[in-house]
From TrEMBL:
<dbReference type="InterPro" id="IPR058647">
    <property type="entry name" value="BSH_CzcB-like"/>
</dbReference>
<dbReference type="Pfam" id="PF25989">
    <property type="entry name" value="YknX_C"/>
</dbReference>
<protein>
    <submittedName>
        <fullName>Efflux RND transporter periplasmic adaptor subunit</fullName>
    </submittedName>
</protein>
<feature type="coiled-coil region">
    <location>
        <begin position="100"/>
        <end position="134"/>
    </location>
</feature>
<feature type="signal peptide">
    <location>
        <begin position="1"/>
        <end position="20"/>
    </location>
</feature>
<keyword id="KW-0175">Coiled coil</keyword>
<dbReference type="InterPro" id="IPR006143">
    <property type="entry name" value="RND_pump_MFP"/>
</dbReference>
<keyword id="KW-0732">Signal</keyword>
<comment type="similarity">
    <text>Belongs to the membrane fusion protein (MFP) (TC 8.A.1) family.</text>
</comment>
<dbReference type="Pfam" id="PF25973">
    <property type="entry name" value="BSH_CzcB"/>
</dbReference>
<feature type="domain" description="CzcB-like barrel-sandwich hybrid">
    <location>
        <begin position="78"/>
        <end position="206"/>
    </location>
</feature>
<feature type="domain" description="YknX-like C-terminal permuted SH3-like">
    <location>
        <begin position="289"/>
        <end position="357"/>
    </location>
</feature>
<dbReference type="InterPro" id="IPR058637">
    <property type="entry name" value="YknX-like_C"/>
</dbReference>
Length: 363
């Protein structure tokens, strides 16, 4: 018996394998086409809502106002310190005291001068009274009588001046108690125990009433839409969100950056601290926005995607622009208002996948 050449056998085997693969791929394709949907999703239509329009901004947090506490008299030694950085103080509270020995000695000297002036006035009054009693007897000349009266007036003025000097000494004694000019939080202390300070030397600084402001920077187009009283929210470095209100809009822009400052007043007991840097939004009025549930948006590779239901229950992956979020919804653009959007289960989908839609959720 003669066998066919080996080359012919190999050629026939290759042809048979090719035919088998062709048949298999065709069968697999048909089978894949007929595979039933394995994922069940819910769909919804976008909702048109009226939401506050927001402007994003960044800026530093600074005190609403700072209060400088200085020595009002001097030079005197600091005798005691009753407050430190971070202390919450009330208006009129004694923050430090100055040495009072020299002031007390000066007040005693002035009180002695008052006593002397009172004695001189008593003598002058007595002379004037004696001159009045003598009258026209001729015992005293008119010039002498007039001299008594002038001395009386001079003694009265001297006594008034001495009493005023005592009151001045009392004021200085009061100034030896360095007091807080308003409620607030001590932000800095330059006073040192034992240091000799002069009148006008700074000793403390306060954040007035403990109020911190967010100084948000906006460009000329944005700042034109901001008004006092509008609501703002700032996110602090620690992740806390603090709400406040616009107190003041800067009337001018910087010449270098053409940006202005919006001063947002934050609550007094907020976790905001002076020197922090925060980012946030300012609500500048309501406007219509197209919204979908938060669960309808999938983030991949730095982009936002939504899945739209198409023909034959196949989904289409669509890039959207996601905006502000509130109440479990997100503002989007890039889809039609009548689109059917997958509201739940989006994270498990890919483009072109066939899904099963629950009737109760379909709209």
């Amino acid at each position: 018996m003669r066998y066919p050449p080996l080359s012919m056998l190999l050629h026939g085997a290759l042809i048979a394998c090719a035919l088998a693969l062709t048949g298999c791929s065709g069968t697999d394709a048909e089978a894949a086409k007929d595979v039933p949907a394995s994922l069940t999703v819910t769909v919804t239509r976008p909702q048109q809502l009226s939401w506050p329009q927001q402007l994003s901004a960044n800026g530093t947090l600074q005190p609403w106002q700072e209060v400088v506490i200085s020595a009002e008299t001097g030079p005197y030694r600091i005798a005691s310190l009753n407050a430190d950085v971070g202390s919450r103080v009330r208006q009129g509270q004694v923050l430090a005291t100055l040495a009072r020995e020299a002031l007390l000695a000066e007040r005693a000297r002035l009180q002695a001068a008052v006593a002397e002036a009172q004695a001189n006035l008593v003598k002058a009054n007595s002379d004037v009274e004696r001159a009045r009693q003598i009258g026209d007897s001729g015992a005293l000349s008119a010039q002498q009588i007039q001299s008594y009266r002038v001395t009386q007036q001079t003694s009265q003025a001297t006594l008034a001046a001495a009493r005023a000097q005592v009151r001045g000494a009392d004021v200085q004694l009061g100034q030896a108690n360095v007091r807080a000019a308003d409620d607030g939080v001590v932000s800095s202390r330059t006073a040192l125990l034992g240091k000799v300070v002069n009148a006008g030397d700074e000793m403390f600084r306060l954040v007035r009433q403990g109020i911190i402001e967010w100084q948000a920077e906006l460009d000329s187009r944005q700042i034109a839409a901001v008004r006092a009283g509008q609501v703002a929210r700032v996110t602090l470095p620690g992740g806390q969100s603090v709400s406040g209100t616009v107190r003041l809009v800067s009337p001018t822009l910087t010449s270098t950056t053409s940006r202005g400052i919006v001063y947002v007043r934050l609550p007094a007991n907020s976790p905001a601290r002076s020197g922090m840097y925060g980012s946030g939004v300012i609500e500048v009025g309501a406007g219509p926005v197209l919204t979908v549930p938060d669960s309808a948006i999938v983030l991949r590779d730095g982009k936002s995607y939504a899945y739209l239901l198409g023909k034959d229950n196949r989904v289409k992956e669509t890039v959207v622009t996601a905006g502000q979020r509130r109440d479990g919804r997100v503002a989007v653009s890039g889809i039609a208002a009548d689109a059917q959007v997958v509201a739940a289960g989006s994270a498990f989908l890919s483009d072109g996948v066939t899904v099963r839609v629950t009737r109760s959720a379909a709209k």
